C-alpha cells in the first residue's frame, strides 16, 4: 500500500516563467518527508478550464491527494477556489466567520494605505471568504485562507506566495481529510549529511565504492545535491535498515573527514551561530558588499554577537574606515591576502570585536586579469588573540554566483577558525 | 485561429526538486516570442507510464505542439523516445547514419576517460540512435539527438541538460513539422507596469472599474502578481488592441500616479542605478544589516557609484562609526526618525558621498513594543544639498520578510529622493 499525490501550480506569471515556481519543489520535499509518492507536478495559467483539466487529469491518474498553489487573491483572475469547488461538486458558500476574520486583517493593513477606499477593498476581499461547502478552512497567513476538500482525491488549496503557503502546510497535513488521504504512506527515516570542499564527482566515486562494500546499500535511497557550494546528501530508508545507513556514514566519515561538517542536517549558519555565543563579531566586506553581515544577522538573536560591519567597496573606504595602509593596497592590490588580513584587523579594532571576517575579490564581469581572474576572492578571519586564518579561492560562475559562494566560503572559514580546525 | 503548446519535463531529480527545472521557463519564453500560446507545463519522473499519461493529457487538451525535455541518455531509466514512439504510433528504428555520428562523438569523449571500456559505452549509446520511424532528427549537441515527430499534435523531443536543449531549439522550430504545427500562431504584444505602495486589493478595485469603463477590456489578458512588496501588472494583447491597452494605462496612471513607477517593465533597481550615475552613494544599515548595500552592488559597474557602507548593528557602532549622538539614541531610541537621519548624515560624511540611505528597525521576532511593534522600520535618504527624505513604515511578515521588504522600501525612497518626488 502507498499514497500518491499530484501538485497543481497555477499562475500565468509562473507558467510563463516570469516568477520562478518555488512551491512545486518545496511541496515535493514535504511529500517526500511524509512518505507520500509524488507522481506529477502540473503548471498552468490563471485559466479556469486549464486548472480544471489538470485536476481531472490527476484524478484520472488515481492520486489520493492533490495540492494546488495560487489563484486565491482578491483579483478576478484568481479563480482556483471556484474551480476546485466545481471539480469537487460542492457549492461555493460565503463563510461569515471567515469573512469577519479577513475583514479584521484587511482593516489592519488599510492603516498603512490611507488613500484607498476601505469599503471597496472589503468588497474585493469578500470573494476570498467564499469556500466550497463542507470544506475545512485553513486560517489566512496573508489575507487568503486555504481550504481542504475531502474526497477521492482530497484536494488541498493553498495560496501562491511561498511565505503564505509554507506556514499553512502543517495545518493542512493535520486535517482529518489529508490524514485519511495519505493513510497508506510508508514511514521512512531521513538523514542529511553536509560537506564542503568536495566536488560532486568525488562523492559519486565514493558512493560507487560504498555500493560494492556495503551489504544492503541498494535499500538506501540516496539523493545528492550541490547547493550554495555545499554538497547535501539526503538518505531515506526504512527503519529496519538503520545499520546499513550507519555503514554508509562510516565510509563517508573515513574518506572525507575534512569536508564532512554536518551529520545531523545542521547548516554551517547554525554551527557558526553556536560558536559565536559569548563572542562579538564584525565584518569587513568588499566584493560581498554586506552579504556576509546580512547572512550572520539572518537569525533571531544575532544582535547578541554581531556588532556590525563595514562595506568597503572603494579603496578610500578600506583606508578611511578600516585603517588599511594605502601602501599595502599599492603593493599587493586590493584583492590580496595582506589586504584581506588588514581589513579583518581593522574591523576587529573599529568595532572592538574579538572575531572579524573580511572578503575582497573580483565578482566580475569586469576587473579580472590573468593573475587574478574573475572569481578570485581573498578571505581572512582575525581573532582577538592575534591569529589569522587566511585563504584565496577561485570561485566559478557569474557575478551573483561568485558573491553568493563567497559568503559560504566566509562562513566555513569562520567555522574552522572558531573550532581551531585550521 | 491560434497555436497552442504544452511542455512535458521529465526526470525524477527535477520532479523531486533536487534539480531546478530551467527548461520549462526557457521554453515558455521561446513560445511567447513565437506567439504560440502555452497551456500547460507538466513534470514527471522517469516512469514511462507517467510520461505517456502526460502526453495523452496534452493531446486531449487539443494542443498543436508538445515539447518534451529529458530522458534521452544512454542509461536504462531514460525512456522518452520509446514512449513518444508508442504515443505517436511509430516503430522505433535504428538510424545507421545517426549511430555512426554518435559513435564519432563518443569516441572523441572517451579520450578524456581512459579507464572506461569503449565497447560497452558504444553499445549503450546505440540506444540513442533508435528513433521513431519517419521522424526528423535534430543533430546531437552532447551525445543525444533530438527528434521531431509530425502529427496531431506534433511532438518535439529534446534532451534535458539546458546547454544541449537550448542550442537545439532553433533547429527544431525550423523543421517543416513544427512550422505546420504553429502555423496558426498570433503575435502578441506584452507590456509590464510596476507599482509600489498599493495593496493588491486596491488594484483589483481599479481593474474592476476599468472593466466597466473601457470598451474591449476583455481582450486584454492581464495578470497581476505581488513580489518583493511591489505589484507587477503584465498585459498581453493582439497588436490591433493597442488603443485598449492605452486606455488601461491611462486609468492606472490617473488613479495611482503616486504608486505607478514603471510603465516599461524596468525595476526600481534599474531606475536607481540610472539615477545614481555621476553620484556616490553610501549606506548605513541596522536591521537590514548589509542587504541594501548588497542590492545596490548586485549589478555590474556599481562600483562606479557605490562607495560603501556601515552595518551599525549595535548602538556603539552607530555612535563610533557613524557619529550618531548617544543622546539622540537615548532620547528617541535607536529605531527613530532622528536616529535614521543621523545615520544617513554620518554615512554621507564618513564616505564623502553625495547620497546616503539609512535603515533602522525592528525585524523581530523579539524587540518589539506597543509603540514600536515588530516590523517598525525608519528610513532616511540624505543628499549633499542638506535635504532629507525620511519615513517610518510598519512592514508585515516574519524577520526575513521585514528585512527583505525594507530593502525595497529603501530603494523606492532613494528613487523618490533622486527624482525630487518627495
Low-confidence stretches of chain A: none
Within the CATH hierarchy, at the fold level, what is the topology of the largest domain in chain A?
Molybdenum Cofactor Biosythetic Enzyme, Chain A
What is the oligomeric state here?
Answer: homodimer
State the helical fraction of chain A.
40-55%
- Which protein chains make the most extensive interface, counting residues with beta carbons within 8 Å of the other chain's beta carbons? A-B, 92 and 93 residues
How would you name the CATH homologous superfamily of the largest domain in chain A?
MoaB/Mog-like domain
> How many structural units, i.e. domains of chain A?
3
Strand order of the largest sheet of chain A: 2-1-3-8-7-6
Structural category of chain A is: alpha/beta
Instruction: Please outline the major beta sheet of chain A.
Output: 6 strands, mixed
CATH class of the largest domain in chain A: Alpha Beta
Instruction: Note the gap between the termini of chain A.
Output: 51 Å
Q: How many helices of chain A in DSSP terms?
A: 16
Please give a handful of descriptors for the protein shown.
six-stranded mixed beta sheet, 422 residues, 16 helices, Maf protein, 3 domains, homodimer, CinA_C (chains A, B), alpha/beta, Alpha-Beta Plaits, five-stranded mixed beta sheet, Molybdenum Cofactor Biosythetic Enzyme, Chain A
